[in-house]
Amino acid sequence: xxxxxxxxxxxxxxxxxxxxxxxxxxxxxxxxxxxxxxxxxxxxxxxxxxxxxxxxxxxxxxxxxxxxxxxxxxxxxxxxxxxxxxxxxxxxxxxxxxxxxxxxxxxxxxxxxxxxxxxxxxxxxxxxxxxxxxxxxxxxxxxxxxxxxxxxxxxxxxxxxxxxxxxxxxxxxxxxxxxxxxxxxxxxxxxxxxxxxxxxxxxxxxxxxxxxxxxxxxxxxxxxxxxxxxxxxxxxxxxxxxxxxxxxxxxxxxxxxxxxxxxxxx
Length: 266
Prior knowledge:
Blueprint: H1 5-12, E1 20-24, H2 30-39, E2 46-50, E3 56-57, E4 63-64, E5 71-79, H3 88-105, E6 111-113, E7 117-120, E8 123-133, E9 141-149, H4 168-172, H5 178-199, H6 201-211, E10 218-223, E11 227-235, E12 241-245, E13 250-253, E14 258-264
Parallel strand pairs: 1-2
Antiparallel strand pairs: 2-5, 3-4, 5-9, 6-7, 7-8, 8-9, 10-11, 10-14, 11-12, 12-13
Helix pairs in contact: 1-5, 3-5, 3-6, 5-6
């Protein structure tokens, strides 16, 4: 076994998230694999964990570097919250949960970069990709894909990623037991998912927003058609980023519009 499956299952037994766990040695993408599981009847709370991804999914069809034995490449099936018709709230829940788990593991505080990245020391350590799906039995499911760099050294990353990516091991100098990180994240995820259900989507969005450091910064927004600079003034609950550009005009962009967002120190 690549993972200590019994350790993970025992820690999550009787829980809403993690009652059904699929362990994979290698897969193209856990999100893609999960879509097939949903077609076969898998439901909310199911977790898919891979040791290696050959085509880990990022935004806009980009790949996520997912070498064996080093990180967490995981997808979770969650039911949409309330009357949500998008994956926004689930995305907030997942990002916030990973941030809380990271902050519990390391002394340096992580930060959220809009729309779905987590940074440590200004470098990317985690990305979350949430996708709406449906099946014959469920019409409001979200696949939340989480890619977290845990035990990579700098030499493990391709040259083009070494300036922009990091891992828990690089930051702390210590190796981590991946099973313990998985359990911590999934317990945090269940706590915040239940909070979103009980307290409402606005409550969880405000918790997410407190951790988002994009607001207040000067940013360059790059879309398929244009790019412009501005000050990020707010994020709306539906995921839109509100900017004031260099002409003092207000613009709003959605995560779907964005190809790249570059932050500057204001």
